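Exercise (ungraded).
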Amino acid sequence: MSTLTEAPPPLTPTAPDKRPPRTRGRWTPYWLLLPGVLWLVVFFVAPMVYQASTSVQTGSLEEGYKVTWHFVTYWDAVSEYWPQFLRSVAYAASATVLCLLLGYPLAYLIAFRAGRWRNLIMILVIAPFFTSFLIRTLAWKTILADGGPVVGALNTLHVLDVTGWLGWTSGDRVLATPLAVVCGLTYNFLPFMILPLYTSLERIDGRLHEAAGDLYAKPSTVFRKVTFPLSMPGVVSGTLLTFIPATGDYVNASLLGSADTGMIGNVIQSQFLRVLDYPTAAALSFLLMAAILAMVTFYIRRSGTEDLV
Amino acid sequence: MEQYEPDRLSPARAAAVRRSLRSGRAALTRRSLLRASTGGALAVGGLGLLSGCGIPAAGKTEGGVSAEDHSKAEKQVRFSNWTEYMDVDGSGRRHPTLEAFTERTGVKVTYTEDINDNSEFFGKIQPQLAAGQETGRDIIVLTDWLAARLIRLGWVQKLDPANLPHAFANLSPQFRSPDWDPGRAYSYPWQGISTVIAYNKKALDGIEVRTVSDLLDNPRLKGRVGFLTEMRDTMGMTLLDMGKDPARFADDDYDAAIARLQKGVDRGQIRRFTGNDYTSDLSKGDFAACLAWAGDVVQLKADNPDIDFVIPDSGYVTSSDNMLIPNKARHKTNAERLIDYYYEPGPAAELAAYINFVCPVDGVKDDLAKLDEDAANNPLIIPDKAMQAKSHSFRSLSAKEETAYEEKFAKLTGA
């Protein structure tokens, strides 16, 4: 091994070294990196190390916690809470798909058709962010209240019979069902889908559409062959920005859901704060992170946009 | 492996070897070497780092740890309380009872409403207290079970009875000797909290609700019933309904109560487990009936005449929020004087008239009647004899029990 690392002697006389005019600039990139790296070390690496350590500790509040390399915690956490894991992924995936279905037409409209209304619509998309996440979620409790007009209309149209049969709702209500949680997630993360979609759509050169039209492509073909492929970076980053936070979310499930809709975020929260089982909570956090990382990697590989993200 | 001898190679082959070292898949470059070695170092260092972490045992010190008392030199006291748990004047910024205290004693009160949730607040102060540091607070207000935990961990200071003459004399008998703090050596209640059954007459539509069993069994209430995420309140009320005393029950009783509630969850009878947000569900009618805290019910009733409450024959659970002095607090004597001040009938009545919780001070009724006749006659604020007789408290739990019970309850609530 060591012999291989030695560079072979030059075979032809090389040209005399051209020294760079200034060596001072060599360190500039590192100085520029420093704030970011420090930030990551303090707020990401250090807590991660601490959590990793916590996840393999055993003990209690009274006796203190010691690192005992108790990896069984991970196995116990998975076998105990896999339904919540699956549920989180299912809810987040549904919300992401809904966001895409709702967000794409809107982003398309803003990018190509809105004209002078563009800024206004953009503001409308972002405006809900001026109020707190909790208030926005609680507003859904009023919108979807049992006796409210929305639920009344859905009942008259027999939509709730269908969703009830699918297991998304139960009885004559929407609140405290999986449907309500997915709606809440969709609503809360929709702007994270629209904004990247809009930026990537807006960048598309309009002349490409004209060219496609000149080549006798139908509007649907133009969309399929030109617009959509070119907006893929937006689709990928939008879905990631929606899916990742939605998987770990617990506010929507606790306010709009019931005892049957607990997501993994709810479990982590209650393990940390109520049960005070810090190792299990830390292990669950790591498992969630690993699961998301694996899914995202797979997704990026499949969509073939590694260099676009 | 064959020794690599570059001078025997033809220039072309040597160049190829060199190229393969510098580029291509298995390129061994300075960067990859660096990466590999830092990776290894990180892994080794990381393991060391991981085992270096760990959370120290709670420094168990009987009687708490006092810092030097600066009460004389620094005329102030720092009071951390829950939101909307203090009387406020018309402007909404000033607290008349606190100002009267400052006027009388010259002790300035720094009043902070930074407690929103027991568990969350515990997470906030735990690192300092575990490390034996000051929390920056002289009085904190915590619910029974957390107060019990802090006492168990030795993180709060023993109170000096000499500074608490009114508190000693006026504390209502109902709150005198909880099993987690016999004789109130460490804590005095700020307010009492009763858990009752509240209902929305309009949503009930004539269905009668008198007991927890009605909530759990009446098929007409399916999906319109709520329970609380506060383990002791929900479990206490269910235990009472099953004929068990929450002050002394066994593991089996607890499991039976969990199973009974689990059935309610599985059948879709219980809509959700809520914290304070049950108030909106109840007033909108999404909950027809639910477990509720009496202080809220008094408020809700004032805003919405459809809301009312019932106390089951089997009894109800009372807990309290307690004033405690954390270890190393700088102004212990001032803090004790403030605690004692709220046990004088005058200030206690003023407070009770404003916040509508169970007043833990005896002999307040006359003063309260002068301020607010209705409040003085409301058994939810000044419990009468019959009401007091039905009150039960949840027994204190050992650390092991607490973890096990909370875990089972968390599973029940879906988290």
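Further reading is listed at the end of the chapter. For now, observe: Confidence is low (pLDDT under 50) at residues 1-7, 24-30 of chain B. The beta strands of chain B are 76-82, 108-115, 139-143, 188-200, 225-228, 270-274, 289-293, 307-310, 316-324, 391-392.
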